[in-house]
């Protein structure tokens, strides 16, 4: 299928970034699968036990949530998949795949009815332009953003799945590698800041 590249956000989610980097460099993400895939929503992987129920972080146990208005569940966001309760992050992650077309026209009215938080206009514009899953904000840690290879994410999201949203044929992560991110490698970047990036390579 190829690979997708992600820029990390250590300034807003240092715990999640360090956890992901440690799991990647130790090889624990290699040969794991994307075990939960929902088209027009997200792809989920990172379970180092390949059972769908493994949640241990790189040093065992779980760690705290990290939320910021600068890191949202926009299309392409890399996020921690917790256990459904606060501060239960471990190894699992998801990538938001929902395109702009997946957002219904009255999404903001629905959100205002269900959420205490009211988004400023600038954030509404981002979601309306790029897509994403705003209802997940401030419930799941966002610690990176795909800047290259969203076609690979879309291809994974489109694979046939069973009733449990597990792909009929395993989508295997062959490797997760780290390198240095610079704005020169990101056509959407507005800063020349160098930081760490990750390349996730699913099997063809």
From TrEMBL:
List all membrane-crossing ranges.
Answer: none
Cite the GO molecular-function annotations of the record: peptidyl-prolyl cis-trans isomerase activity
Ranges for domain PPIase cyclophilin-type come to 1-178
Q: Which UniProt keywords apply?
A: Isomerase, Rotamase
Enzyme Commission code(s) on record? 5.2.1.8
Please state what class of enzyme this protein is. Answer: isomerase
The record's listing under InterPro entries reads: Cyclophilin-like_dom_sf, Cyclophilin-type_PPIase, Cyclophilin-type_PPIase_dom, Cyclophilin_A-like
Give the Pfam families listed for this entry.
Answer: Pro_isomerase
Catalysed reactions, as listed in the record:
[protein]-peptidylproline (omega=180) = [protein]-peptidylproline (omega=0)
Function of the protein? PPIases accelerate the folding of proteins. It catalyzes the cis-trans isomerization of proline imidic peptide bonds in oligopeptides.
The entry sums up its family as follows:
Belongs to the cyclophilin-type PPIase family.
Instruction: From the Swiss-Prot or TrEMBL record, give the protein name.
Output: Peptidyl-prolyl cis-trans isomerase
